[in-house]
Amino acid sequence: MASDKGVDELEKQFGVKILRCVITGKRWKFTGERVSNFSVAAPYKIIVNEKEGFVVYGWEKLTSAHKGIIERRLKNTDEY
Question: Are 30 and 21 in contact (CB under 8 A)?
């Protein structure tokens, strides 16, 4: 799972908002700071494992290549 620094870098590089979450069944709970400036578009959920994931706001404006980069880095399957 990506570090907080890695998440910050992705947000700056791609212009998205990424929130770390804990998954309990069908519910996703934000674990970081509260954010009041969200996109009105539906977020994209990235499952890292059965208990952790990320919610990405601004996903719809990304290219497919950028989506792949973000997903791999959040899951820590891509070196950076």
Answer: yes
Q: What is the pLDDT of residue 42?
A: 81
| Cα 46 to Cα 32: distance, rounded to the nearest angstrom | 16
How many domains does the structure of the chain reveal?
1
Q: Which residues pair with 52 in a beta bridge?
A: 22, 49
pLDDT at residue 48 tops 50: yes
Residue 79 lies in a domain: no
List phi, psi (to 5°) of 61.
Answer: -90, 0
Angle of the 4-14 helix axis to the 64-74 helix axis, nearest 10: 170
Q: Answer whether residue 80 is part of any domain.
A: no
